[in-house]
């Protein structure tokens, strides 16, 4: 075996070892993040939906046009980054609303896009009281409510 | 006194390029649920309206609530054009803030 082949083989072997160590760790981290159904609180969410939009959860249509970027696990709930992009022209969106199921005040913000928005994109940082789904509700001009949900596990709550 | 920071990424975009426009406001965003050392509730004080315009036309209008973090960040996407970005806000105490930023583009 020449040096080059040896190095290539060793690199591959190390790579596999690395992957083998990394995969279970990742699977474990995923297992620690509960599913939406496990941590949702529809009663409290409906309170926020009624106040902000006058609707309840059954009006929302889950949609893959709405994408949420947020951490799976947040050390502190006081400052959780949330990034939202919607696969629709901004002009077709009446409002982009954010809710968190278990926050004492479940409606967090509403954003309306103007003519100078290049994309239906918005990012901010939010408070999460305890592990719960973040909900983005996109209200379209034709009267639909598109929904995306993302669970962030919170170690220390952000409302106290 | 509230301080507003405005920046684009990339900092000096090409004309027509989609850029991320970030706004950070120095504001306590008091949710009204926290207590001080003596156990008294700290009254709520948070931003309720924030508007961003580019050359006089609206980029976005945000209605935050007490669920948005202290010193909040708001980011948007715009097509780069030379001119003025203007950010204005109002909070629950009726206090307002305003800041402008000159957006420069590479031709």
Q: Which descriptors would you attach to this protein?
A:
heterodimer; A: 160 residues; alpha+beta; Immunoglobulin-like; 2 domains; 6-stranded mixed β-sheet; 3-stranded antiparallel β-sheet; 9 strands; 38% strand; globular; B: 107 residues; mainly beta
Structural commentary:
The complex is a heterodimer of chains A (160) and B (107). By secondary structure, chain A is an alpha+beta fold. Chain A is built from 3 helices and 9 strands, in the order H-H-H-E-E-E-E-E-E-E-E-E. Chain A has helices at residues 3-32, 36-39, 42-53; strands at 61-62, 66-69, 73-76, 80-86, 93-100, 107-113, 120-126, 132-140, 145-156. In chain A, a hairpin with a 4-residue loop joins strand 8 and strand 9 (145-156). The model of chain A has no long low-confidence stretch (mean pLDDT 88). Chain B is mainly beta. In chain B, 0% of the residues lie in helices and 50% in strands. Chain B has no helices and 7 strands. In chain B, a hairpin with a 2-residue loop joins strand 3 (47-54) and strand 4 (57-64). Chain B starts with a strand and ends with a strand. The A-B interface holds A 78-81, 83, 98, 100, 103-119, 121-127, 158-160 and B 18, 20, 22, 31, 33-34, 53-55, 57-70, 72-79. Strand 6 of chain A pairs antiparallel with strand 4 of chain B.
Detail the topology: elements first, then pairings.
The complex is a heterodimer of chains A (160) and B (107).
Chain A: H1 3-32, H2 36-39, H3 42-53, E1 61-62, E2 66-69, E3 73-76, E4 80-86, E5 93-100, E6 107-113, E7 120-126, E8 132-140, E9 145-156
Parallel strand pairs in A: 1-9, 3-9
Antiparallel strand pairs in A: 2-4, 4-7, 5-6, 5-8, 8-9
Chain B: E1 4-9, E2 18-25, E3 47-54, E4 57-64, E5 73-79, E6 83-91, E7 96-103
Give a concise summary.
With 160 residues, chain A is an alpha+beta fold. Chain A has helices at 3-32, 36-39, 42-53; strands at residues 61-62, 66-69, 73-76, 80-86, 93-100, 107-113, 120-126, 132-140, 145-156.
């Amino acid at each position: 075996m020449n040096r080059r082949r040896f190095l290539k083989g060793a690199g591959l072997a190390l790579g596999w070892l690395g992957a083998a160590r990394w995969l279970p760790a990742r699977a474990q981290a995923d297992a620690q993040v509960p599913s939406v159904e496990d941590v949702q609180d529809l009663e409290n969410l409906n309170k926020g939906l009624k106040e902000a939009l006058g609707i309840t959860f059954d009006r929302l249509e889950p949609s893959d046009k709405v994408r949420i970027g947020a951490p799976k696990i947040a050390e502190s709930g006081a400052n959780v980054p949330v990034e939202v992009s919607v696969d629709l022209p901004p002009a077709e969106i009446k409002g982009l609303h954010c809710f968190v199921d278990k926050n004492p005040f479940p409606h967090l913000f509403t954003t309306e896009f103007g003519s100078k928005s290049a994309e239906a994109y918005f990012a901010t940082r939010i408070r999460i009281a305890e592990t719960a789904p973040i909900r983005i509700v996109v209200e379209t001009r034709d009267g639909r409510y598109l929904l995306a949900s993302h669970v962030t596990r919170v170690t220390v709550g952000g409302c106290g | 006194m509230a301080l507003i920071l405005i920046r684009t990424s990339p900092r000096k975009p090409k004309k027509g390029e989609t850029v991320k426009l970030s706004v950070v406001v120095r504001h306590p965003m008091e949710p009204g649920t926290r207590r001080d050392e003596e156990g008294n509730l700290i009254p709520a004080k948070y931003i309720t309206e924030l508007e961003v315009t580019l050359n006089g036309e609206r980029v976005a209008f945000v209605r935050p609530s007490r669920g948005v973090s202290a010193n909040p960040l708001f980011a948007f996407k715009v097509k780069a054009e030379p001119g003025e970005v203007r950010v204005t806000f109002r909070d629950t105490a009726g206090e307002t803030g305003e800041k402008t930023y000159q957006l420069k583009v590479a031709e």
